[in-house]
Design brief:
By secondary structure, the chain is α+β, with helices and mostly antiparallel strands. The chain contains 15 helices and 20 strands. The protein starts with 12 loop residues before the first strand and ends in a 27-residue tail after the last helix.
Length: 507
C-alpha cells in the first residue's frame, strides 16, 4: 500500500503480489452430496492454516466433488492465504498437493515463484494487520484476490531473500526457545505456592518464630475458648446433627507442632450456605440495587480477596438472601470446586457458595482461605463426575483444620502473603517478558523488509532482473495455456495439472 512505499535498499524494487506469480482460489463441493466428501484429495479450509507448513488437514473430497465444483488441486509448496472473517491473513504452505475452499487465496508454487514463496510467506505474516484493516467493514470482513494482487511488496534480490529468510528463522528459533523456557514459569509458580502452603500448615514456615516466641498461649487453650463460644451459638444457629464431627482423633492426621491442635471449621466459626430462595434465580426484579451479589465466577477471579463484583441485589433480592459480613470466607461448592476468597465488604451470595465466618479474634479468615486452597484438589475428589460438579456442606463439616496459636496464625498469614507477593511479581515479569518476545518477533519482520536484517552483496542479481524473469516466464506460460479447461459437458477437467505432484489413488 502507499504508506509502505518507503525508500528501499539498493538492488530492491517495489512491485505488487500479482506480479510475482499466479494467484488462484478453490471452492466447496455441495454439502448436500455426501459422495463429494471423505475422499482421497486433501481439502484445505482457513481453519487448517497454521502460519507454517500445512501438515494436518481435517477434510478430504472425492474426485467427483472436485469435478463438480470450483475446487482445484494446487501443487506442494504453494502459499495459502485466508481472505474471509476473523482468519484474514492466516497463512500456510502446502506440505502436499491439495485443494482449497473459496476462502483461501493460493499463490501457486511453480517456476521462479517457487523460490519466492518462503520470503513472501514472512512478508505476508508481517502484513497481516494491514490486510485485516483493509478487510474491515460490513457484517463479514473480507479481502479478495484483486486486493491481494494489488498489494505492494518490496522485492530484494533472490539471494538476499534467502539470507533474510534464514536470518528470520534463526532468530525465530531463539525466541521460540525463550518462549518455551518462559512457559514453564506459571506452573513453577503454582507449585511454589502449594509448597509454601504445605510448609505453612506443617509448621515449617514458622519454626524459627516458635523458637523466638516460646511463651505464646498454646492453641489448646485458644480452642477451649472457641468451643465455649461455639456452644453458646449452637442452640440458635446449628442443628444437633451438625456437631457429630467435633471430636478429632489426631493419630490419623498429619503431625503438627506441639502447641497446635486440630479442629473443624464448624467449631472455629459459622459455616453455612449462601441464600437465594427466589425462583427463578435470575428474575430481573431481584437485581440492580445497592447490595453486592457475589457469584462463583467472582470468587474464581478474586485472587484471594473479593474487591469487585459483577451483579447487585436490590431490597427484594436482599429479602430472599442474606448479607454476609466483611471477612467472610467464600467457598464455592459448584462449578469450580473450592475456589476460595475473603469478602472485602458485606455481600450476598447464592447457595452454590458456602460462607465461613470465623470467630472474631480467635481464628484468621485468611488462614482458613489458605488452608482450603491447600486441600482444594482433595475436596474436588468428592465431587461426582457429572456435567455440573459439586460438593455439599456435609463434606466441609468433615474437614479437619490445623489450629496454631492466634499470634502464630497472624505470623503465618504474613509470611504466606509476602511469599505470594514475590511469586506474583515473578508472574508479572513473565507476562512482560512474554509480551516483549511477541514484539521482538514483529520487530524482526519489520527490520527484514526494510533491508536491515541480512547483509547485502553487490554481486547479487538485482531484483529488477528477477522481476523481468518472472514476467517473461508468466507470459510464456500464458501463451502456452489452452483456451478452455472444460469438458464437453461443461464440467471442469478434474485431472491434476501437468507438472504437479500426484496423489496416491488419484491416477
Amino acid at each position: 500500500m502507499s504508506e509502505k512505499l518507503i525508500e528501499l535498499s539498493e538492488g530492491w524494487v517495489w512491485t505488487n503480489l500479482g506480479e510475482l506469480g499466479e494467484w488462484s482460489s478453490g471452492g466447496t463441493p455441495s454439502r448436500k452430496n455426501i459422495e463429494y466428501f471423505s475422499g482421497e484429495i486433501p481439502w484445505v479450509k482457513t481453519g487448517d492454516l497454521p502460519d507454517g507448513l500445512i501438515k494436518k488437514i481435517e477434510e478430504t473430497i472425492t474426485q467427483e466433488g472436485l469435478a463438480n465444483s470450483s475446487a482445484k488441486i494446487f501443487p506442494k509448496g504453494s502459499l495459502v492465504l485466508a481472505m474471509y472473517g476473523a482468519t484474514i491473513g492466516k497463512l500456510g504452505i502446502l506440505a502436499q498437493p491439495a485443494a482449497t475452499n473459496q476462502a483461501c487465496a493460493v499463490l501457486l508454487s511453480k517456476g521462479v515463484t517457487t523460490d519466492l514463496i518462503p520470503y513472501l510467506f514472512y512478508y505476508l505474516l508481517d502484513s497481516r494487520e494491514d490486510l485485516r484493516m483493509i478487510g474491515q467493514g460490513g457484517a463479514q470482513p473480507n479481502i479478495n484476490q484483486a486486493i491481494i494482487k494489488e498489494y505492494s511488496c518490496p522485492l530484494p534480490p533472490l539471494n538476499e531473500q534467502k539470507r533474510i529468510v534464514a536470518k528470520i528463522e534463526e532468530l525465530n528459533d531463539r525466541t521460540q526457545k525463550a518462549k518455551e523456557a518462559l512457559e514453564a514459569i506459571p506452573q513453577l509458580c503454582d507449585r511454589f505456592r502449594q509448597s509454601v502452603l504445605a510448609a505453612a500448615f506443617r509448621g515449617d514456615l514458622t519454626a524459627d518464630w516458635r523458637v523466638e516466641n516460646p511463651d505464646v498461649e498454646p492453641a489448646s487453650v485458644l480452642l477451649e475458648r472457641i468451643t465455649k463460644n461455639s456452644q453458646a451459638e449452637i442452640q440458635d444457629k446449628r442443628k444437633p446433627q451438625e456437631l457429630k464431627y467435633c471430636n478429632i482423633d489426631p493419630s490419623n492426621l498429619p503431625k503438627v507442632p506441639a502447641n497446635w491442635v486440630w479442629s473443624h471449621l464448624q467449631i472455629l466459626g459459622e459455616l453455612t450456605r449462601g441464600k437465594s430462595k427466589h425462583r427463578p434465580r435470575n428474575d430481573p426484579k431481584l437485581f440492580d440495587g445497592k447490595y453486592p451479589f457475589i457469584q462463583t465466577g467472582d470468587i474464581a477471579r478474586a485472587n484471594g480477596r473479593i474487591t469487585k463484583h459483577s451483579q447487585t441485589y436490590n431490597e427484594i433480592g436482599l429479602l430472599q438472601s442474606r448479607l454476609f459480613p466483611s471477612g467472610t470466607v467464600c467457598i464455592t461448592i459448584a462449578a469450580n470446586i473450592a475456589d476460595t476468597a475473603v469478602l472485602a465488604y458485606p455481600a450476598c451470595f447464592p447457595d452454590s457458595v458456602v460462607g465461613f465466618i470465623p470467630q472474631q479474634g480467635m481464628f484468621e479468615a485468611v488462614l482458613a482461605m489458605y488452608y482450603i486452597k491447600l486441600i482444594q484438589s482433595d475436596l474436588e475428589i468428592f465431587a461426582p463426575a457429572t456435567a455440573q460438579k459439586n460438593i455439599n456442606l456435609e463434606i466441609l463439616y468433615e474437614v479437619a483444620v490445623p489450629v496454631p496459636p492466634i499470634d502464630e496464625q497472624r505470623e503465618i498469614v504474613k509470611l504466606i502473603d509476602s511469599l505470594f507477593k514475590t511469586t506474583e511479581n515473578v508472574e508479572q515479569q513473565y507476562q512482560k517478558a512474554k509480551s516483549q518476545l511477541n514484539h521482538l518477533n514483529q520487530s524482526i519482520l519489520s527490520k527484514a523488509f526494510r533491508g536491515e536484517l541480512a547483509p547485502q552483496d553487490p554481486d547479487d542479481e538485482p531484483a529488477y532482473v528477477l522481476l523481468e524473469r518472472i514476467r517473461a516466464e508468466r507470459e510464456k506460460l500464458n501463451n502456452s495455456k489452452p483456451k478452455s479447461n472444460r469438458t464437453s459437458k461443461g464440467k471442469r477437467n478434474s485431472k491434476i495439472p501437468e507438472g504437479q505432484e500426484s496423489i496416491p489413488g488419484l491416477e
